[in-house]
Structures are given as C-alpha cells and as structure tokens.
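Tutorial, part two.
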Amino acid sequence: MEFNSLSKAYNMTGWRIGMAVGAEKIIQAMCRCKENTTSGIFNAIQLASIKAMDDGDGEIDKMLAIYRRRRDTVLRAFAALGVPVRPGDGTFYLWIPVPHGRTSLDCAERLLDDAGVLVTPGTAYGQYGEGYIRLSLTVPDDRLEQALERIRSLAGRFGSEYFQGAEDTFRSTCLAL
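Running the prediction step on this input gives:
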C-alpha cells in the first residue's frame, strides 16, 4: 500500500488531495470505509489534480529551481551572520539554529517584535524542535529578501552577539527534523 499527496509536488497544499495505490482488495475496503466517513473532495479540485498529474510534471523542475535559489539565498545570508544552517532534503523550509541560551519561542518573538519577520518556533513541531526556528521558502523572492534584510539589520542593531552561540547550538543539537 502506498499513499501520496499532490500538496508539495504540484503546489496544492491545503487542497487535501492525494492517492493510494495497492492491492485491489485493500483499495476496495479503503473506499468502502472512506465513503462512509467523509463527504469526498470537491469536483473542481479532483479535475485540477488530474490536470496537474497529466500535464504538470514540466513545472516541477521550474518550481524546484525557484526553491533551490531561495534556499541558497537564505543559506548565504545566515552564513554571513556566522550561523551555519544544514538544509534538509526535499523541503521548502529551513531549520535555523537559535543562539545558545535562547529558546526557539524567544528567538521567534524577537524576530517578530524587533524585525517584523514572522518565523515559526521549532517547538510548534514538538520538543525536538527546540533550538531551531523554521523559515519558509514559499514566499516570493522580494519578500524573502526583505525579511533577510530585516534580520541583517537586527543583527547590526544588537551586534553579532545576537546570533553568537548559534553555531554551538547547531553542533550540539543537530536534529533530523
């Protein structure tokens, strides 16, 4: 049995559409269960999904190039601040280590309050997210660059000590998130 979603590959996050492939008996049983527990997916979403799978594969490489460019931009910006970031494979998020002695919530609040940049504290994803903030690469390039400029400005206002210790956090709590 294999399950898959169109969320990431076809930029259909939030549409809640996917598929299952497997032995006919199992798929039939799953369909009987599903038809009695949910109301189904809106037809327009089903038709858009079919179109995406039939004709959308050529767009995937373009989309991956955009995310790769954005990822590299963020990696360079944080490297210039002395914050090493290990990019994950196959994701459009980056987990940024927070400075030693700060919590992920404290760091996220500081970025929001002092720089006007919204990131997600790692603890929103469970206890193993502590020590990191999650930054999304799904925003347009100009918006991402604006956020990075605000972060650079914050580091400039508070000095490099704002991010001091992030490298130690990175080394001591590297997680496969």
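The beta strands are 2-5, 18-21, 93-97, 120-121, 132-136. In part three we will examine how such features are distributed along the chain.
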